[in-house]
Design a protein that fits this description.
Strand order of the largest sheet: 1-2-3-5-7-10
Distance between the termini: 41 Å
Order of helices and strands: HEEHEEHHEEHEEHHEHEHHHH
Number of strands: 10
Strand content: 15-25%
Helix content: 40-55%
Structural class: alpha/beta
CATH class of the largest domain: Alpha Beta
Oligomer: single chain
Length: about 260
């Protein structure tokens, strides 16, 4: 369908799971400003939807995203880049409170690698390749690549990728700690969706606060982060889901979480 093919992303709600698919196959899902606007908006809509508990972002089997769309910035001046405010879209993605699972197959390069690292869990096919090759076009990663990658895999591996533009395989990414789970290529999307539906059965308020607490580990000193964790822990005792979860455990039955 021409109309569908012209849309930079596709969205679908599968019961409690929101699915966003990157849809620019002709340019290897290059992350244009339009795509990033649409992606941020779709994620915000799912984040605000009380029926949705977990979000999946997927590419195709061939490619997750091969980077930013260079046409958006090849001839730009510093002033023009400031006016575009392109990283505002990334900040919107960072603020999504519900868990996001990346279903990655094929190339995840530059902005594509950074987008995967904005997610909370990365499911990668065995064909996936990750890289930050911005150095080869005269720039550096600008959407968190130097920072999130270093925190994920360590200084020396990150230096090898960022300074040399080296790609790493899915196996290396898994062994380095960048990827959560490694699966056969033909199952990468099914594995991500299965995990999302499994997580969607968990208490949604606890899911959001658990994500929030884990993210603080990179932002706060240990003593502050522990105090932050404890406050969220105590807060959950004001939810109906906590009462239901513990009652179900004691009664040896399956809990029914309502997000209250």
């Amino acid at each position: 369908m021409p109309g569908i093919m012209s849309e930079p992303i596709l969205t679908e709600a599968q019961r409690r799971v929101g699915v966003v698919t990157l849809n620019r196959p002709d340019v290897l899902n290059a992350l244009s400003l339009q795509l990033m606007d649409k992606l941020a908006g779709a994620l915000e809509a799912f984040d605000a939807d009380p029926e949705i508990r977990v979000i999946v972002i997927a590419g195709s089997e061939k490619v997750w995203a091969a980077g930013a769309d260079i046409k958006d910035m090849a001839d730009a001046s510093p002033t023009r880049m400031h006016e575009l405010n392109m990283f505002a879209r990334w900040e919107r993605i960072k603020r999504i409170r519900k868990p996001i699972i990346a279903a990655v197959s094929g190339f995840a390069l530059g902005g594509g690698c950074e987008l995967a690292m904005h997610c909370d869990i990365i499911i990668a096919s065995e064909s996936a390749k990750f890289g930050q090759p911005e150095i080869n076009i005269g720039i550096i990663p600008g959407a968190g690549g130097t920072q999130r990658l270093t925190r994920a895999i360590g200084k020396f591996r990150a230096m090898d990728m960022v300074l040399n533009g080296r790609f790493i395989s899915a196996r290396e990414a898994y062994e380095f700690g960048l990827v959560s789970r490694l699966v056969p290529k033909e199952h990468f999307l099914a594995a991500a969706l299965n995990l999302a539906h499994e997580m969607a059965q968990k208490p949604p308020i606890a899911l959001r606060l658990a994500k929030e607490s884990v993210l603080k580990a990179d932002e706060l000193a240990l003593s502050e982060a522990l105090e932050y964790e404890r406050k969220l822990f105590y807060l959950l005792f004001d939810t109906e889901d906590q009462k239901e979860g513990m009652a179900a455990f004691l009664e040896k039955r399956r809990p029914e979480f309502k997000g209250k």
